[in-house]
Task: structure prediction
Amino acid sequence: MKSPLAIVPVPLLVSLLLAAGTPAGVCATSLPKPSFEKHFQATTLRMDLVRAGHAEEQSWAIEHVGVEGAWAGSRRLLIDTMDLGELLFEVRDAESGQLLFSRGFSSLFSEWLSTSEARGPNARAGHETLRFPLPRHPVRIEVKERGENGRFEAAASFSLDPSRYDLAPWPKLPIPLEVIDLLHNGAMESRVDLLVVADGYPDSQAEKFRRDLNRLLASLASEEPWASALDLFNLRAIRARSASAGGPAEPRKGLFEPEALTSFDTFGSPRYLCPKNFRVLEDLAGSVPHDVLIVLVNTARYGGGGVFRQFTVSTADSEFDAYLFLHEFGHGFAGLGDEYYTSAVAYETPTPSVEPWEPNLTLQTERSALKWGQLVQDSTPLPTPDDARFDGVVGAFEGGGYRAHGVFRPARRCKMKDKGAVGYCAVCTRAIRRMIAFTAGLDELPGQRRTREAP
Ligand SMILES: [Zn+2]
Result:
């Protein structure tokens, strides 16, 4: 999801959350923790998949498998128990079936499946990249997607023998790259490794890219909860050395720069700016070990996009750039949902009948069933009236996820809802902090409060 809020809000059009789900209730402590050293090497294995089909039916196939550079992720937290994302992939030992590694994620192609075009006669193909540490022994990779009840169901399964002759290093792009180390706070396995890829920065704009990178870093450093956890981040950036202009493409203006990595007008939404060639983007990104991919686009036009653990795209020069990046990064990094409901988007899914998986959206208004219930004071009414008395209070406010009714958000105002100088609400803050901790290989951040807390 996850285009930015339209500049001029239009009356409610729209759509609904994708078939989302009731949390599967996986308990972190119930799973045996696999040993990284026993099962994996500290090298990244990248598996590119093609998913083709339409709303009714899809099939999955391997496009390419190869070995990239060092493994940037945690060697401690191999199993993802957060139950976020539209999709989940699991790596299991082929012989014993033991779960060795898993990650939830979302996908731009999953969003396309919720558009009206996907219910038409034409099938399309989407690109999915899975990265995980190189297994020492044969494994099975199982891809799951949420079914109508919101729970993960089997979608595809692949076997992989790491001793196979064709598991070669991933081919490098024949493009000279400028690599910039902007922030280094420690070893990759214990840090959130951000990678920013430049789009639309030819050699003549190389200095501007550095200035824009510094502004992006400054926006993280000036906004909680990123600011107080910044020492858990590394940030590197890459720019293809080229004399030509690059992206973004602007289809409605007839602008199709051949080297563009991103394009406006995704799914017909002018402001939805997303990668347009995932293979090239992932090939570029694969040259630098990372946990999180950001594309910084050199344009003054308003737009952006963020899909959980797939990408965050932000523009460098629009009037709302700090808002834009921090809003989209909420989607791309932490899986936060849009809390607004007054702006047109392209998704056309029915009213959700199961609990959204996004940590900041719910169908529940019963305190005991509310997933952020421990952050709600006893004196706060549920549902919570949308008036100024409840500014800054955590409750259950009706309207969110592109729906004015039936979906509830945690706060009146939040960066996932409002433009301007609005911070993340307490629930989004908690979700971001949890994701920072998980990605950095920590059970929780220092000072993370587990019990009831003031909004
Ligand atoms: Zn929020």
Summary: Confidence is low (pLDDT under 50) at residues 7-29, 450-455. The longest strand covers residues 40-53. The helical segments are 36-39, 108-112, 206-221, 278-285, 321-334, 426-439.
